[in-house]
Each structure stands twice: as C-alpha cells, then as structure tokens.
C-alpha cells in the first residue's frame, strides 16, 4: 500500500510539473481542464497497468526455498484472533485523518444549507437564485447561484452569465470530485494543488466566455473590485481576491497559437516512462533448485545445470556448493554430473574415503576441450550431514519409538508441536503481516536441535518460528551405517490472517 501511495504521488508530481511549466499560461482552458482531471485519474490507475511490450524482469537473489531434507507438507498457522480487526498505528492515523476531513466537508455543506435557509430563494428556468441579505458574495454551486443583495443593486448581469458558465459546464462536479479525494487522500498535498489548479481553470473558462459579449475593459474593471466570499473549496466564487490578478492577466493575454498545443505531446514520453516503470516485475530468483536424480547401475548420478562451466555465475557457484553439501554421503559412491547448455560436462565422483575425485573432462559438441584440473577435497566425517529424506534410520521423536513408520510419526509430531506452541505475534497482526517462513535446523549426533536458520517476510514471524523450534524436545539421533550423524530437517511454516 505504501509503495502504491508513493507511486501515485510521484506520478501526480510529474504531471503537475509539466502543467505548471508548459501549459498553465496558455489559453487552452478546456484542454487544461481535461489534462488536470485526466492525469489525476491516470495517476491512480497507472500503478496497476503493466504492458508486456515494456515488461522487464528485475532479477534478485533470494534465500532458497529448497532446504536439506525438505518436508513437502507445510504447517499453516492462523491467528487465534484473526477475525478481530486490529488497526496498526499507521491505519489509525489514516482513518482519523479521513474522519476529520469528512467532518470538515460536512461542515461546509452545513454552511451552504444555512445560507440557503437564510436567503431568498427564487427558482428560474436555468438555475436557482438565492439572494443573501446585506451581503456582497457571489458564487455558484451546481445549479444554484448565491448572490448578495448589494450585488443585485449593481450591474450584475455579467456575474450571472459568468456563474451560468460554471453551471452549464458542470464545474461543481470537478470540485466535488477533488473534495472527495481530499477526504480519502488527505495526506497527499498534491490533491489540494490539483483542486486549486482546476478551480483556477474554471474561472478562466467562464471569464473567456463572458468576455465575448462584454467589453473587456468593463469586465476587467469589475474584476478589480475585491468582494467578500465564502471560504468553501468546492464552490465557484466569482470574487476571489487570490485569483483576481491572474484572471485579469489571462483576459489581457492574446489567444495562444494552435501550434503551441503541441506542448500537450510532452505528456506522451512521461506516460511511456511511467508505463515502463510500472511494467517492470521483480522476479525473485531461487538459488537452489530441484536437482534431477537418476540411477545408473548401483550409483546415484546427480545432475547440476549451469550456464557455462568455464565461467559459472555467483548464483550458480552457490548452487553447486549447496548441492555438494546436500548430498555428500561419503560412505557410498556417488557420481555428480556438472553440465551446461553448450554441451560441456564434468563428472565428479565421491568415494567412501571422503574425497571428491576423478573429475573427468568431456568435450562439448564442438569437440572443444575444457581445461579444468582434477581436485580432491577431504571431509571430516564427524561433519557429515545426512538428509532426513535419505538417512537409513531417521531421528526418533519422543513417542515414536514403537511406530511402524518413524518418518511419518516424526513429521506428525513436528506438526502437532508447532500448532500447539505457536502464538501469532501481536505486532505482525497489527501490521497485517502474513506469509511463509522456511525453517531449517539440524538434529545433531546427540539428538539436540542446532543450527536453526529461517527466512520469512518479517523478523517477528522468523523469531516466532525460531522460538517454536527451540522448544522441540531432545530426540534419538539419526543413524547411518550404525553411526549417529547430523540430520538436517526443513519445514515451511505459513502464518495466515483471515
């Protein structure tokens, strides 16, 4: 939501800069009215518009969702009081501001209602005239013209014609629209600027229409008189001192040449630039990917795909490291095949001696030889991690000692433990934060939980997941070839609000 608000404000600022610098001083008043209303509406919709032609993928590296021995089933935790609407402090400020703005709007309507009740109402063919006693005000609101009796005593024909332009062209609808936007987006200063600009254009439009039938000199003289008016933002006041000078300047200004209308084309590159920005997508690239596993005779052959063996990317190097760490069962013979899209491949074989050897270099489709030296890396057997999914005897959760399927019993107990012990963080509820936390931990040779790691959408959810895992009881360690080993285990925990 915050990003959407900032994007809207940014787009509106760009459109207003174009208007103030290039368009505001021109006499294309109707076009300026369309521009102001159109760009405001477009700025609200643009963050949702994505054009395939401009679509660009922004690749970012994310923590992997594939962990050692991952459990395919996830635990979904729902907040116990998720049906209660809890407002964050940001939401509280937002709605309080909207409430204050609404009260101000209602008070303005009340002022108009009181003026009408205290005035002399006369219903004419095209409008309703409301004469206010002992007053010099003059303004219109929809099909009603409020005018002071002191103005009636003078030559007020030009004023009535001026206000009729507002009525015929529906200028009050424009102002009411921005008034509602001031309620919804009271925090956005550009809404007030837009409303000010559109009210200014309304006066220019009405002045230009009246000046066609009245001598400009007499009309300008009328404008120089500073009268009193109501300070209501969504009415069209005839006498507004802050606009008098601008209206006189615009009346004296020669009509803009049609060629200057090409200035409106400036909005096209701005519009395209915004579309390019909104069409960009963030694609979280997972470093660890599912690895293809096939069986060749009595050996397991595991395949890693990379773009170029000679120059793997940093992400691919991480992928290779994770891959080797996941499957380095040094008690058996395993073949690892590293290959790329160009046809080059390297075979790496592990043996029971605890080394990676026999890096056989093969030729690619162009018969090109890849020069890579043979490597041998020794591992400390006490550091061996055997994934939960492949270990011969998995860790035994207390209560699963006599279970026929100890893996299934282990997972069931884990699910029950998480569901029983979780508490949805209050601050996450208040902020409306939910999502999936990937938890990875190791059950060591003594059956104790160690090396707990997690990755989620918010620190509070990660901390809650760590707290739950930290309460797991001591277990019977997993066995491989009769020896106690470290067993990594992973599980996704989904925190969900209704």
Can you walk me through this structure?
This protein is α+β, with helices and mostly antiparallel strands. It has a domain of 89 residues. It contains 14 helices and 18 strands. The strands form 5 sheets. Strands 3-4-6-5-7 form a 5-stranded mixed beta sheet, with helices on both faces. A hairpin with a 2-residue loop joins strand 9 and strand 10. Helix 2 packs antiparallel against helix 7, helix 3 runs antiparallel to helix 6 and helix 6 runs antiparallel to helix 7. The longest helix is centred in the first third of the chain and has 30 residues. It is elongated. The chain starts with a helix and ends with a strand.
Number of strands: 18
Shape: elongated
Low-confidence stretches: 56-72, 282-300, 327-331, 351-364, 367-382
Number of helices: 14
Q: Calculate Rg over CA atoms.
A: 37 Å
Strand content: 15-25%
**Estimated helix fraction:** 40-55%
Strand order of the largest sheet: 3-4-6-5-7
| Structural class by sheet pairing and helices | alpha+beta
Distance between the termini: 18 Å
Give a short account of the largest sheet: 5 strands, mixed
Mean pLDDT: 76
Keywords:
5-stranded mixed β-sheet, elongated, 498 residues, alpha+beta, 14 helices
